[in-house]
Amino acid sequence: MGSEIEELKQVVAQLQQQVTRLSDQEEVRKLQYKYGYYLDKCLYKEDTRVQVANLYSDHPDTCVEFLGGRYNGKEGVERLYIGRFAKAFVNGRNGPVHGFLLDHPQIQGIVDVNPAGTRAKGRFRSMMSAGTHESVKDTHPRGLVQWWEGGIYENEYIKENGVWKIFRLKYFPFWHANFEKGWSHTKPNYIPFLSTTYPDDPNGPNELCEHPMLWPDTRVVPFHYEHPVTGQQVADDDLRAPHYGEDPSTSTPPMVLSKPKSDP
C-alpha cells in the first residue's frame, strides 16, 4: 500500500506541473491577445489605469523592437506608444478618434514556458487593416488612406510577482499593401525604417537593429522553438531569401533575434 501511495503522489505532482505549465501558456496567450485589443483602440497613455505600457515588465532589459529600432526599458516603451503612436494617430489622447481604423488581430499563437515557469516565449501573427474614413480626410493628419499590413511577433514574457508581463516585444512588419493595387505593387521601403536614435529624435529608438526587413524581402523571422519531431533549428541559409535560382549567400544575412543581457 505504501508504494502505491507514493506512486499516486508522484502522479499528482506530475499532473500539477502539467496543469501549471498549461495555465502559464494560456495566461501568456491571453496577455498577447489583450495587448492587441488595447492597441486596436489606441489605449496608450501613461496617466490612465489601462494602457499598453502597463502590460510591460519593469525589468531593465525590457524593450520593444519596431521598424528597425529598439526602444529600451519602460521609458523607451512609453516613448514609442505615447510619444510616437499616440501623437501621430490620435493627437495624444488615450483612446480612439472618430474615423481612424487600426485593427491588429493576434493569431496563430505558439507559446513555450521555461521549466521554472518564470519566463516564456511566444510567436504570433498579425493581419492588420488600417486607415481613415473619407469623412475625416481633411481633419486627420494621415489624410485619406487605407492599407493592409502583415507581421510576425517573436516575443519574450516574464512573470513578476505572480503576474505575466511582456518582457521583450519584437514585431516584424512583414509586408504592406494598399487596397487599390495590393502587395504586388508595394514599393520597397514602403514604410521607412527608423534611422535616428533618441534623443536626436525625441520619439526615436535607443538603438538601431541590424538587417531590418520589409517586403519584398522574405527572410524568415527566426523561430524561438525547435522542430517538434527532429528537435532541430532551421539552418541559417534556410532563413535567407535569395532571388529565384541564386545561391543563398547572395541574400541579405539571416535575421537574428536579440537576447536580454540577463538571459538566464
From TrEMBL:
Residue spans of biased composition, Basic and acidic residues class: 237-246
Annotated InterPro entries: NTF2-like_dom_sf (IPR032710), SnoaL-like (IPR037401)
Region annotation (Disordered) ranges: 232-264
SnoaL-like domain residues: 21-169
Organism, as annotated: Massariosphaeria phaeospora
SUPFAM superfamilies: NTF2-like
Protein name: SnoaL-like domain-containing protein
